[in-house]
C-alpha cells in the first residue's frame, strides 16, 4: 500500500515541458531557426519529469507492516520515536 507520494517536481517538469512545447509551436509557425532549441528543452523536461515520476518507486522502503513508504524521511522519524 502506498501511503505518501510527493511528485511535485515531476509535475512541474511536465508542465514546463508542455509550456516549452507550446513555445516551440509558436516559434515554428513564425519560421524561427531557434525554435529547435525549444523543442529540445521540451524533450529534456519530459524525460526529466518521467524519471522524477519513477524515482520514488525505485527508492521506496517497506515499513514494519510490509507497506511501501515513499517518504523515507517520515518513516525514519517514526522508527526513531
Characterization of the model:
- With 81 residues, this protein is mainly alpha-helical.
- It has one domain (8-80).
- It has helices spanning 8-29, 35-58, 72-80; strands at residues 61-62, 68-69.
- A two-stranded antiparallel sheet has the order 1-2.
- The model has no long low-confidence stretch (mean pLDDT 81).
* Helix-strand string: HHEEH
Strand content: under 5%
> Which class best fits the helix and strand makeup?
mainly alpha
The first-to-last residue Cα distance is 22 Å
- Name the shape in a single word: rod-shaped
Explain the layout of strands and helices.
Elements: H1 8-29, H2 35-58, E1 61-62, E2 68-69, H3 72-80
Antiparallel strand pairs: 1-2
Helix pairs in contact: 1-2
Q: How do you describe this structure in short?
A:
This is Isoleucyl-tRNA synthetase. The protein is mainly alpha-helical. Helix content is about 70%, strand content about 5%.
Amino acid at each position: 500500500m502506498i501511503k505518501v507520494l510527493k511528485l511535485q517536481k515531476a509535475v512541474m517538469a511536465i508542465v514546463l515541458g508542455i509550456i516549452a512545447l507550446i513555445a516551440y509551436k509558436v516559434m515554428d509557425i513564425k519560421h524561427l531557426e531557434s525554435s529547435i532549441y525549444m523543442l529540445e528543452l521540451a524533450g529534456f523536461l519530459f524525460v526529466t519529469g518521467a524519471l522524477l515520476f519513477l524515482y520514488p518507486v525505485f527508492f521506496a522502503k517497506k515499513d514494519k507492516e510490509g507497506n511501501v513508504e515513499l517518504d523515507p524521511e517520515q518513516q525514519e522519524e517514526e522508527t526513531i520515536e
